[in-house]
Amino acid sequence: MQTTQPTPMISRRRALRVLAATAASLALLPALPASAQAGRLSESVRLKHFNINKRSKLALDGYDPVSYHRSGGPKKGSKSRAVRYRGVIYRFANDANKEAFKKSPAKYEPAYGGWCAWAMREGSKTDVDPKSYLVIDDQLYVFYKGVWGNTRSDWIKLAKKNGNPALIKQADRGWDKFVG
């Protein structure tokens, strides 16, 4: 004769404590930064808010977004190696980069739709020099460099003091004002 053990019952109070603890733990997990959410935006939002040529829809002035992640830095892409991703056109220097982008576009798209990361900290869209950039935690950030200064240098100086995560969080809040 086989006896069965009664199944343990969890009290309602205990269940609520476990649920509350789980919710609190999840709240501590970092949210996906706005800088990495570009692929989730609708095509119309991307076309409205990305730093692209409004007629051709070309991003990064034709620079290959994958090349920023490779040794040798940014390279101009070719018209014959263009990819349209959710309304935005990207060009590539070679077929390998084109295929890498097609497999993981969110990894290679610039943060903040290609606007200056430094200016985005202040909630402002400022054009960039596509050769002024940083790749931080595998995310591309581009910066203004011109008559009014070099915001990449400003970012590096402030990051030494406050850390990149703090600056990125500020810029994420700025970007959210446009697309949030």
Ordered list of secondary-structure elements with their pairings:
Blueprint: H1 12-28, H2 43-49, E1 78-85, E2 88-92, H3 95-103, H4 105-108, H5 117-120, E3 129-136, E4 139-143, E5 145-146, E6 149-150, H6 151-162, H7 164-179
Antiparallel strand pairs: 1-2, 3-4, 5-6
Helix pairs in contact: 6-7
Proportion of residues in extended strands: 15-25%
Taken in chain order, the helices and strands follow as HHEEHHHEEEEHH
Total helical elements: 7
Largest sheet: 2 strands, antiparallel
Question: What is the general shape?
Answer: globular
Q: Label the structural class.
A: alpha+beta
What's the number of structural domains?
A: 1
Q: How many strands? A: 6
How far is the first residue's CA from the last residue's CA?
A: 64 Å
Read across the widest sheet, the strand sequence of neighbours is: 1-2
* Percentage of residues assigned to helices: 25-40%
Radius of gyration using CA atoms only: 22 Å
Low-confidence stretches: 18-31
* Nearest-integer average pLDDT: 86
Descriptive account of the structure:
The chain has 180 residues and is α+β, with helices and mostly antiparallel strands. The protein has one domain (36-179). It has seven helices and six strands. The strands form three sheets. A two-stranded antiparallel sheet has the order 1-2.
Short characterization:
The protein is of the alpha+beta class and 180 residues long. The chain has helices at 12-28, 43-49, 95-103, 105-108, 117-120, 151-162, 164-179, and strands at residues 78-85, 88-92, 129-136, 139-143, 145-146, 149-150. The chain is 38% helix and 17% strand.
